């Protein structure tokens, strides 16, 4: 069996994979070689480097392991037509992303940006406008594994958590649950709105201007899921019109965010360059999912951990 990684893992992690599967042929590149792809039965990729033509070239391909959570940039129709199994690393992002979200909230609430500015100016001032996170209410849109971990941390700070998903079905570490249908009526009650939704046809521009108008003018909006949750001009207008107080964004409709984009200059926006999931343990955790899946695959079991429905995007 030939397994093709379109990236080159850290040497120590790569050595462990080779040691655990001595009878499997692994090829590690930092790009895609059509000659190797033509012979590969399993492809391990971050997803963004796969185009429709690659699926045509990969005549023997049966399984794509995506070392990421999102598959929206992959040629989904071509993969589905071939019946290729797709799995991802859903769940590995929950710790770094939850810590990133909490860090941004605390930085905003406790005035850390102002403190850092004073430090740079060597100016002693105690006119901080810090507020408390304790006693506030947070709405988490799309609370899966990541949202539940965010909820757990927020509850430790005395925050009331409300989860929002398509069904309204209960999720761990949410004090209350609502469905998408109840979103408009719930927004006026919350202080922090956090989205960790994936990109699917159902979530495209889910949030409209009326949703931001329904939020408190003191609300903090955070998008750590996918940038197409809200149209850029809608969010910008909501900020300009002071419908909300501040937005912390890790994802955008256009990435990289152009250097001349207004968000960079807006004091009501914190720009994070899609790094909330970054961690020194990212690849280690990805391989912890890949290796048991490979053991299953080698004995003919294709019911893999995090097996996805490529046509639905999750």
Automatic annotation (TrEMBL):
The keyword Amino-acid biosynthesis does not apply. Keywords: NAD, Oxidoreductase. Gene3D superfamilies: NAD(P)-binding Rossmann-like Domain (3.40.50.720). Residues 102-276 form the D-isomer specific 2-hydroxyacid dehydrogenase NAD-binding domain. Residues 18-300 form the D-isomer specific 2-hydroxyacid dehydrogenase catalytic domain. InterPro entries: D-isomer_2_OHA_DH_cat_dom, D-isomer_DH_NAD-bd, NAD(P)-bd_dom_sf. This is D-2-hydroxyacid dehydrogenase. Belongs to the D-isomer specific 2-hydroxyacid dehydrogenase family.
């Amino acid at each position: 069996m030939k397994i093709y990684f379109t990236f080159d893992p850290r040497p120590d992690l790569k050595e462990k994979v080779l040691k655990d599967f001595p009878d499997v042929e692994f090829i590690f590149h930092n790009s895609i070689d059509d000659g190797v792809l033509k012979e590969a039965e399993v492809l391990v990729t971050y997803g963004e480097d796969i185009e429709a033509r690659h699926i045509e070239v990969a005549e023997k391909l049966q399984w794509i392991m995506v070392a990421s959570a999102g598959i929206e940039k992959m040629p989904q129709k071509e993969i589905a037509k071939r019946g290729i199994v797709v799995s991802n690393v859903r769940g590995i992002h929950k710790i770094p992303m939850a810590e990133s979200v909490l860090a941004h909230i605390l930085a905003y609430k406790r005035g850390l940006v102002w403190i850092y500015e004073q430090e740079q100016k060597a100016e002693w001032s105690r006119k901080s406008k810090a507020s408390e996170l304790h006693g506030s209410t947070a709405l988490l849109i799309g609370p899966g594994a990541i949202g539940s971990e965010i909820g757990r941390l927020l509850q430790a700070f005395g925050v009331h958590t409300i989860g929002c998903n398509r069904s309204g079905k209960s999720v761990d570490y949410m004090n209350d649950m609502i469905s998408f249908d109840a979103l408009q009526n719930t927004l006026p009650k919350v202080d922090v709105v956090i989205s960790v939704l994936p990109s699917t046809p159902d979530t495209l521009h889910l949030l409209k201007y009326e949703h931001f108008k329904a939020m408190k003018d003191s609300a903090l909006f955070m998008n750590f899921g996918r940038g197409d949750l809200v149209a850029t001009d809608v969010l910008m207008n909501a900020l300009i019109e002071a419908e909300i107080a501040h937005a912390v964004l890790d994802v955008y409709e256009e990435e990289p965010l152009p250097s001349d984009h207004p968000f960079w200059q807006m004091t009501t926006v914190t720009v994070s360059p899609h790094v909330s999931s970054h961690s020194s343990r990212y690849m280690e955790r990805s391989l912890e999912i890949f290796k048991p899946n490979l053991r299953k695959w080698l004995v003919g079991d294709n019911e893999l951990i995090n097996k996805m429905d490529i046509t639905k995007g999750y």
